[in-house]
Amino acid sequence: MTNLSRMNFHGAQMNLRYDGRETRERLLNAACEVFAEKGYRDATIAAICKRAGVNVALVNYYFGDKAKLYVETWQYAFEKKCCGQNLPEIDGFPPKKQLYLYVLSMLEHFLDEGEQGWFTRLYLMELANPTGLIHDIWHGLIEPKRRTLIQIICRLMGKEEVDENVLFCELSIINQCRSLLTIRRQDLEYLLTQPLSKELVNRLADHIARFSLAGIQEVAHTNHLPL
Amino acid sequence: MTNLSRMNFHGAQMNLRYDGRETRERLLNAACEVFAEKGYRDATIAAICKRAGVNVALVNYYFGDKAKLYVETWQYAFEKKCCGQNLPEIDGFPPKKQLYLYVLSMLEHFLDEGEQGWFTRLYLMELANPTGLIHDIWHGLIEPKRRTLIQIICRLMGKEEVDENVLFCELSIINQCRSLLTIRRQDLEYLLTQPLSKELVNRLADHIARFSLAGIQEVAHTNHLPL
DNA sequence: GCAAATTTTAAATTGCCATTTAAACTAATC
DNA sequence: GATTAGTTTAAATGGCAATTTAAAATTTGC
User: Fold this and answer.
1) Which of B41, B208, B226 is opposite residue A172, by nearest beta carbon?
2) What phi, psi does B53 have (nearest 5°)?
3) pTM
4) Among B8, B114, B223, B224, which is 20 to 30 Å from B21 by CA?
5) Among A215, A39, A220, A208, which residue's Cα sits nearest to residue A126?
6) Contact (Cβ atoms closer than 8 angstroms) between residue A87 and residue A102
């Protein structure tokens, strides 16, 4: 069996023996951890295979190359480890509380070392160091989350339509969260002069929600900076 | 002349012939551009030397290795290309306007392709992908800027002392700016549904200042999120 | 149980990049 | 203008990581 005849078997599906499926899955799990921890560039195939306890050649056997493994890992992490449930149920709450819950859900995986945090970490790693490899998937996965936040903002501003001010507010909010998640832990602790803890994360979420709420209401009212 | 006897000539100073000084400077300039554009990891010595028009061996000859070149590039960019003037003169303005000027100064190098932007870009590249190499320099260069912002916030909050709320606000502000500068241009244009322009950057600076001003005043007053 | 297909392995290959080497070259000094 | 110190060059070296190969091992279907 030449490699050529395998060429297009690298989808998720076919011709896999039961033991094959298992190794493939082990690789995906290991890839989740390593990619989430190191980012695409710094993650080595060797490290992934070591963590999975399999031979280095198997990445190419099952996925073709590192880039394709990365893409599959993304989808896998989304479907198996996150499954759209990254956002808590926020319907029915007043919009102020919705904003708080949204922010909190972005931050709360921060200290989470477990499976829940993998997708979030992959996401943030990609934000910090875009590989461009997941461009196609990105849209479908991120856009729904985006829409949720935008709706909350619109409601808080009393607007029916999305305009520049709404998008600016969206940026302000996600950027406050994003940077917190991408900054090195030690740097954040230096800036805040205290060690990270669950409580600190909660206070931060609280702060960002209040800070942003006031910001949203401010820019909803007037259109020029009072100097 | 063995390499050993050169060992500690890699400082900025000694024993350089006039033509040597010139090549050294050409390397530093090229390094500014390449490091600022690619970040430490993705910048190759070959690319830097090509841009400088010199032989690859000269990086090691003049600086020892890539890491030392990076550190010297940082200092060089700060002294020659930025020189502490990254911040505009803000004394004498009311604190609200000071905040606006501070934000604007962080954003305005964004579209700047010239020498002025190099240090800012190096700085942001380091934030996005910390090498840890400039840890020692960092403090001295960044801390003064930080202090400026913190003072503005304190004034706006009517506080004498720096507390957690002040630091949270500082984070909120610099994170809004940071992410804008580190996000890929195409991604930002996608999020805002319009091409980047000088005017857009100005409106963004305006937004961030107003948004943050309201946020600061909000958290200065109360200590709990009204849900 | 046998044959075919699939999986796994160890080792080789390839490519990229930092770093070194040693010889050729150039400027400065006397 | 010869000697010395400093500079530049092309080519070699060495390390790391992705990828390939071909043979060995295992499972599956009959």
Assistant:
1) B208
2) 75, 35
3) 0.83
4) B114
5) A39
6) yes
pLDDT band at residue A77 under the 50/70/90 scheme: confident
Contacts of B193 in chain A (CB under 8 A): 167
Q: Do B179 and A193 touch (CB under 8 A)?
A: no
Helical segments of B17-163, H only: 18-42, 45-52, 57-63, 66-76, 95-107, 116-128, 135-157
Cβ–Cβ < 8 Å for A23, A54: yes
pLDDT of residue B223: 65
Tell me which amino acid residue A48 is: I
Chain C footprint bases within 7 A of protein beta carbons? 5-11, 16-22, 26-28
> What confidence score (pLDDT) does residue A24 get?
95
Assess whether pLDDT exceeds 80 at residue B92. Answer: yes
Better-predicted residue by pLDDT, A2 or B97: B97
* Neighbouring residues of A92: CB distance < 8 A, sequence distance ≥ 6: none
Give the Cα separation of B169 and B181 in Å (integer). 19
Integer Cα distance of A197 and A209 in angstroms: 18
* Residue B195 host element (H or E): none
Percent of chain A at pLDDT above 70?
84
Contact A164, B203 (CB under 8 A): yes
Confidence band of A103 (pLDDT split at 50, 70, 90)? very high
Residues 74-93, chain B, CB closer than 7 Å to nucleic strand D: none
* Cβ contact, residue pair A227, B187, below 8 Å: no
| d(C-alpha B110, C-alpha A92), whole Å | 41
Give the residue from B43, B45, B48, B47 showing the smallest Cα distance to B31: B48
String of DSSP letters for B29-53: HHHHHHHHHHHHHH--HHHHHHHHT
Selection from B40, B37, B32, B34 nearest residue B129 by Cα: B40
Top pLDDT among B78 and B33 is at: B33
DSSP strands (E only) in A76-180: none
